From TrEMBL:
Cellular component, GO annotation: cytosol
Keyword RNA-binding: yes
UniProt organism field: Nocardioides eburneiflavus
Protein name: Tyrosine--tRNA ligase
Gene (UniProt): tyrS
Tyrosine--tRNA ligase SYY-like C-terminal domain boundaries: 355-416
UniProt: ATP binding residues: K233
Species lineage: Bacteria, Bacillati, Actinomycetota, Actinomycetes, Propionibacteriales
Length: 421
């Protein structure tokens, strides 16, 4: 990829929902290395799927020769961008500082800090904390007509339910970031999610008003399911990038289960496969959807990107074993534990274990002992991937996998864990 065609590449991948003057942006990206920035507010202890769109976009731009400035919002994270669901709970300074560092470490894995276009991380707390209210109102607030601020979509939707002055003024802080990076570092491009479009254009307009020069911006689209609802949720909550908040196994499973209709779109956005590979996988998915070739490649590529290739292999081995096709004893204990906790089940105190019928009921695989008895009689019950043939089976400590688990399965796809201790 060269700097001359990176915008075309982004457009083919469906990563440009809005932009400032498209011709001017293309020309700037074709003239040499453009300094660009994307920001992440530490409003949670981890980034998530929506942030991943921005991280892979930053990497694409850097791979094309442009220079990243990754902003972690130690100041804006104290406030939080307005959202449709209502006012955010303000976090303490200590919490925001801790989350800022966690987010900084996460984003640093996706761009390179070496070479002629090495990435730089910045924290907007550094230029915001010492700014006086009077200077802020005179130097920044003066350039923002209130009628324009009221016209922002999120603000309009919040006016009836109420919005604080704190969140209402968020756009001024983010715009000031762009102005500061433009002045201090020569940053000429900002991008972010489509929910940030008002902030992005606010920043570009502030740069123009204060300096008389043009600044560029674009927004990536909101990623939605086929029914139009937001992506980014698993059964357990948000699709976090932190392995302590969402296991690599669960992360891999999420991508394996996306709809056939969305595979091509998600391959374009989240992977670095070339056009020929993506289109071939789309074709395979359309012709033989039951093979799930697109989903498998998508899950492997994105999990490797976020968690590393080794975790992909652990996740695949765990899935194979849990669904009856592999050795449970060969799974990394941490992966087995996280997979079984994701699946649901129960915890028992140390001591004598219940019989198989009670275990099936307590693990949620049978509604009653009678149903559990029928499942065993019909050959549909498994303990540690071995078919249960005796309704009186009494597991012992010797049956525990990885020291503390019993793996129960009903049929081919329904499994649960029983943790002992």
């Amino acid at each position: 990829m060269t700097t001359a065609n990176v915008l075309d590449e982004l457009e083919w991948r469906g990563l440009v929902a809005h932009s400032t003057d498209r011709d001017a942006l293309r020309a700037a990206l074709g003239e040499g290395s453009v300094k660009f920035y994307v920001g992440f507010d530490p409003t949670a202890p981890s980034l998530h799927m929506g942030n991943l769109v921005q991280l892979v976009t930053a990497r694409r731009l850097q791979d094309a020769g442009h220079t990243p400035y990754i902003l972690v919002g130690g100041a804006t994270g104290m406030i939080g961008d307005p959202r449709d669901s209502g006012e955010r709970t303000l976090n303490s300074l200590d919490t925001v500082k801790e989350w800022t560092e966690r987010v900084r470490q996460q984003v640093s894995r996706f761009v390179s800090f070496d070479g002629s276009n090495a990435a730089t991380t910045v924290n907007n707390y550094d230029w915001t904390a010492s700014l006086s209210t009077i200077d802020f109102l005179r130097d920044i607030g003066k350039h923002f007509p209130v009628n324009r601020m009221l016209a922002r979509d999120t603000v309009k939707r919040r006016l009836e339910s109420g919005i604080s002055y704190t969140e209402f003024s968020y756009v001024l802080l983010q715009s000031m970031d762009y102005l500061n990076l433009f002045r201090e570092h020569g940053v000429q491009l900002q991008f972010g999610g489509s929910d940030q479009w008002g902030n992005i254009t606010g920043g570009a307009e502030l740069v123009r008003r204060v300096t008389g020069e043009n600044a560029h911006g674009f927004a990536t689209p909101l990623i939605t399911k086929t029914d139009g609802t937001k992506y980014g949720k698993t059964e357990g909550g948000a699709l976090w990038l932190d392995p302590e908040m969402l296991s690599p196994y669960a992360f891999h499973q999420f991508w394996l289960n996306v709809e056939d209709e969305k595979v091509g779109e998600l391959l374009r956005i989240f992977t670095f496969l070339d056009r020929e590979e993506v289109e071939d996988l789309e074709k395979q998915t359309a012709e033989k959807p039951f093979v799930r070739a697109g989903q498998k490649r998508l899950a492997d590529e994105v999990t490797a990107l976020v968690h590393g290739a080794e975790e992909v292999e652990h996740a695949k081995a765990a899935a194979a074993a849990l669904f009856g096709g592999g050795d449970l004893g060969a799974i990394k204990p941490e992966t087995l534990a996280s997979a079984l906790r994701e699946a649901g089940g129960t915890t028992l105190p140390p001591g004598e274990l219940p019989g198989i019928l009670d275990l099936l009921v307590s693990a949620g695989l049978a509604k009653s002992k009678g149903e559990a008895r029928r499942t065993v009689a019909e050959g549909g019950a498994y303990l540690n991937n071995v078919r249960v043939e005796d309704v009186e089976l009494q597991p012992t400590a010797a049956d525990l996998v990885a020291g503390s688990w019993l793996v129960l399965r009903r049929g081919k796809k329904n499994f649960a864990g029983v943790e002992v201790g």
